[in-house]
Amino acid sequence: MTYLLLILGFALLIKGAEWLVNGAVSVARRFGVSDLVIGLSIVSMGTSMPELIVSIIASAKGSSELAIGNVLGSNIANVLLILGVTAIIRTLPVHRNTILSEVPFSLAAALLVGFLANAALFGEQANQLSISRGDGIIILFFFLLFMAYVITVAREDKKKLKIEIAARTPLYKSLFLIGIGMASLFLGGKWVVDGAVELAEMFGMSETLIGLTVVALGTSLPELVTSIMAALKNNTDIAVGNAVGSNIFNLLWILGVSAIIRPLPFDVASNVDIFVVIAASCMILVALIIGRRMAIKRLQGIAFVAAYAIYLYFVVKRG
User: Fold this and answer.
1) What is the band of 168 on the pLDDT scale with cuts at 50, 70, 90?
2) Structurally, how many domains does the chain consist of?
3) Claim: this prediction has a pTM higher than 0.85
4) d(Cα 242, Cα 168) in Å, to the nearest integer?
5) What is the CATH number of the domain that holds 177?
C-alpha cells in the first residue's frame, strides 16, 4: 500500500503541475499579468500546499521539529535542487525585479525567522528558544507586505503588457485547470509524503532528519515538477518565480500560521539549516554576477545541485 501511494502520488504531482502551469499562464495572458507575478502568487501558493498541510498537522500534533524541518528543508531544495535542475534543462533569465526585490525579500524572511527563533522575544521562558504565537503574528505581517508588493507589481505589469485577445483560453477552463492542478498537487504531495515518512520511520530516522530530507523532498516535488514543466514550455519566469515565491510562502505564511496554532520549540542545531537557506539565496545573486547576463546557466545549475548533494550528506551524517 505504501509503494502504491508513492506511485499514485508521483503521477498526480506530474499531471497536477502540468494543469497548474497551463491554467496559470492562460490567466496571466488574459488579464495582462506577467508570468513572473503568476509564478510568485498562484503557482507558489499551489505548490506550497503540501508544505502547508504537513506543517499545520505537525504543529497541531506538537511535532515542531517536523514542521520547522519541513519548511527549512523545502526552501533549501527549492533553490539548490529545483533551480539547479531547471537551469541544467534550460538557462533561466532572471528579471531585475527578482534580483532587487524578490530574492532580497526571501533573504530577509530567512533572517527574520532566524532572529525571532533565537531572540525568544515572546517566549514564556527566556532560556527556551521558540517561534511563539507573537512571533507568528510578526511573520504573517511581513507576509502581508509581500502580498502587497505582488499586487503592486501585477498592476504595473498590466499597464505594460498587451493582452492577446485572439489567444485567449476560456476563463472557466483556465480556472478549472488551476483548481484541479492545485487539488492534484495537494493530494499527490500528501500521498508521497505519507508513503515516504512511513518508509523513513521503518529505518529509525529522527523527526528532524525526516523533516529536512524525506518530507522536504516530498513536499518540494510539486515545485520541482512545476518548474521543470515550465522550463520545458519556455515559461522560465514561472520557474524562477515559483521557486523564489515558494520560499517566501514557506517562511512567512506556513511558519506564521503553524506558530499561531501552537508555538514551535526551536532546536539550536536548526540554525545551521537557516544559515544554509540564507547561503542558498546568496548563491542566486552570486550566480547572476558570475553569469553577467542576468541568468542562471547550466554550469551554475550543476553547482547548485552539487551543493545540495553536499548538504544532504551533511544532514544525514548529522543524523
Assistant:
1) low
2) 1
3) no
4) 23
5) 1.20.1420.30
